[in-house]
């Protein structure tokens, strides 16, 4: 079977994030530097990471095991950025909160 020589989208995102965040000196630089990163993030789909909703299984009584409302999937970490995916069950949420002196990109799939 022939190999696919295309670079996976997630690798392109990691490479561009390294470039984008390595050059930032202040939060004022963020908007200009993200012009190449944002289109890559916009193109990302859950299927690109082989993420699919879990099949619901009925619980065995009130003490039955349930999946947690939020799960974190680590992608990579460098000296300049960290990348991961938060998986939320339907109806779950992450409270609005602050990360001082950090910039973030969110993508909802």
UniProtKB/TrEMBL annotation:
InterPro entries: PCO/ADO, RmlC_Cupin_sf. It comes from the Eukaryota. Keywords: Iron, Metal-binding, Oxidoreductase. One of its GO terms (molecular function) is oxidoreductase activity, acting on single donors with incorporation of molecular oxygen, incorporation of two atoms of oxygen. One of its GO terms (cellular component) is mitochondrion. Pfam families: PCO_ADO (PF07847). This is 2-aminoethanethiol dioxygenase.
